[in-house]
Amino acid sequence: MRSAIRATMTALLSAAAMGLTLLPAPRATAADTAVLHAAPHGSGTACTITRPCSLDSARDAARALAGRSVRVELAGGTYALSHPLELGAKDSGVTWAAAPGARPVLSGGRAITDWSANADGTWTAPVPDGVTPRQLFVDGVRAVRARGDSCAASVCDATKTGMTGASRTGIDRWERPTDAEAVIRVRWRNYHCRIASVSGDLMTFAQPCWTNSTSGTDRTGPAWDTTTVDSSRYAKVSYFENARELLDKPGEFAWDSAARTVTYLPREGENPRRFQAITPATEGLVNVDGAHDVRLTGIGFAYAAYRQPDTDEGYAGTQAGLTLTGATGPVDHAGRHYTKPAAALTVRGGRDVVVDDADFTRLGGAGVVFEQGTQDSTLTRSRFTDLSSGAAYIGDTEPRPTAELTGARNTVSYNTVRHTGVEYTDAVGIWAGYEAGTVIDHNTLDDLPYSGISVGWGWNQPEVQKSVLRDNRITNNRITNAMRVSYDQHDGGAIYTQGAQPGTVISGNYLNRSAYGNTERDGNGIYLDEQSSHITVTRNVLTRLGYKWVSNWADYGIDNHATGNWTDTDAPALGGTGSTLTANHTKLDRLPAEALKVAGSAGADPHGRVEQLRRDLARTGTATQSSTDGTATAARATDGDTSTDTRTQSEPGAWWQVDLGAVRHIGQVEVWNDASTTTADFDVQLASSADFSDATTAHITGKALRPTLIDTDEEARYVRIKLKGTGRVGLSHVLVHP
């Protein structure tokens, strides 16, 4: 021992005499794992706990230790990245992890500072070169790009070449109309195109964004598609955004590309001299290309940018957050060449990559992308919130890729996804393309503008009727508040599928409030769309849905089987050859204990709350109406099925009512409009006497929703829905809760 100490001292003295500084080597664990250290302001190449490196230097140091197990530990704090951390094949086998007790955050944000006050209460600040502030976060809270009201198609008439309405909306008088964008939602699609010019009442838009959003190219979609901006389904511009003239609500901002300034109207209590304003600037924070056995754990990802929408490409939405790009390209109506959004973390061609316990927040695009043949990789126990696009995109859009480029056996599990699709409202929470053996399990998803989980691609196009899709499992997920009505996206579901998927199972999921409160009948629980085939749907709990609990409408979707599910409504028979609905528990007004157990164990939290159904007094009542149109009898509104409708003739004061059989205490009435949203401008009357002489009345202006809720505190035997004028009453469901 003494000789060893003497040798060490001799080496240190010799090093000192030569003017060298010896640093302790990276520490090793019992398994001989070399541990390197990185910190937000790390520098040099030592990578020790006292002399930590930058991320790039830590990566390079790990490469120098080839053949050893390496762990890079990140100290807490914010790592401001001007470029992504690039990990390739030679970075395989390395673990990137938060240091014990630390929460490191990789950030692509740039601070906006030097605010000056304006006379109108707004504040303006210069923007650093190379930065376009599409999003702005003030003390961590997302600001809103200044936006106006909607513009109906009768004023803003969209064509293949442009749009009318510049004069009537006042856009022709804006100082910088070419900084503004039109935001349009048509069915399941979302479009963001920048104004290119204004001439009188006419506007043109950046190209190729506008052509890719209209029927002006054969690349936009199949012949049956009526969701382009110049289609029969187009009803309005949802709003124009990003003009100084639209700044009228606290928390809004506008970007001026000529002056390179951003102007913000502070919320109450905000002081621009003290707050922190950050805009996403760096696109992509970590890229993993062709690596295997890489692990990223305990790391945060924030303020990553998504640059495409700010270019002339804009955002020509196709479905689920993917876009059509390029002025030219292959004609392919199956979406093979659609473009995924930019993500904070992208894994390409990865093998056995693990992303664990990560936080993805305040992003201008998506959270995670696994693509280009990523296999056997896992995204687990991570949190996604306040994302402009979706949380996770798994796989690709090529139906028959080579073995090396096939996405297979990936797992997305125990993640929490909340408040995503904030800007690009067609985005889904979790998307998987042509995947085989992928598992999406025990995730919690809430507050989503469109569908929750989407698996499969290609619609009914011949070129994709045979693909690698198979053996996927969508199990034990909790999806609540999907297809939010305020975002005006339609024709989706809490769980949505495409394509023939032999061996795929959808089981144990709790789906509550999908398209609840919708303006039309098109929000589903489990939506087996187009040629979805060979899928088993079993032991799911589905409640408070805008339309069907399971939908398989297409004749070319075959061999689907739904059995043993619990739901508060019903559904027509499944379409396609060999599909079946058997032994399901439908039309419930209370969930039984077994259903409560399944629902309660779904999601990332094993003790999640389940919203019990409320007893329906109308279910056993006697329904009548003022007249009947064909076979649309009054009893269809009390049959527990939101897919069947009543209908009266068109007449003055048309009405529908239910006799509860006795005076009962009534706490709430749910009125579900029919498929054609017929019922509008009506009274809901509650009375104890059959002549309604003692009725209390609540008036509903405009169309009934699915549902419109009327809270009350009355004793009554009769509930009547009566038009104020002349017209029809059409209802799919009326519930009366004690």
Descriptive overview:
This protein is mainly beta and 738 residues long. The strands form ten sheets. Strands 1-2-5-23-28-31-35-39-42-45-48-51-53 form a 13-stranded parallel β-sheet, with helices on one face. An eleven-stranded parallel β-sheet has the order 3-6-24-29-32-36-40-43-46-49-52. The longest helix has 16 residues, at 2-17. 52% of the residues are buried.
Total helices: the number is 5
Structural class: mainly beta
Shape: globular
What share of residues is helical? under 10%
Q: What is the assembly state of the chains in this entry? A: single chain
Cα radius of gyration in angstroms:
29 Å
Determine the N-to-C terminus distance: 85 Å
Strand order, biggest sheet?
A: 1-2-5-23-28-31-35-39-42-45-48-51-53
The tally of strands reads 61
Major sheet summary line: 13 strands, parallel
Tell me the β content: 35-45%
- Can you tell me the residue ranges where pLDDT is under 50 for at least 5 consecutive residues? 1-25
Mean pLDDT: 94
Helix and strand layout, with pairings?
Blueprint: H1 2-17, E1 33-38, H2 55-63, E2 69-74, E3 77-80, E4 85-87, E5 94-98, E6 104-107, E7 109-112, E8 116-117, E9 123-126, E10 137-138, E11 141-142, E12 144-145, E13 151-152, H3 166-169, E14 181-186, E15 189-199, E16 202-205, H4 209-213, E17 236-237, E18 239-241, E19 252-256, E20 261-264, E21 277-280, E22 286-289, E23 295-297, E24 300-302, E25 315-319, E26 322-323, E27 343-348, E28 354-356, E29 359-363, E30 366-371, E31 378-380, E32 383-387, E33 392-394, E34 407-408, E35 411-413, E36 416-418, E37 430-432, E38 435-436, E39 439-441, E40 444-446, E41 453-455, E42 473-475, E43 478-482, E44 492-497, E45 500-507, E46 510-514, E47 523-528, E48 533-538, E49 541-545, E50 550-551, E51 561-563, E52 566-567, E53 580-582, H5 593-601, E54 622-625, E55 651-652, E56 655-673, E57 680-687, E58 696-703, E59 708-723, E60 726-727, E61 731-737
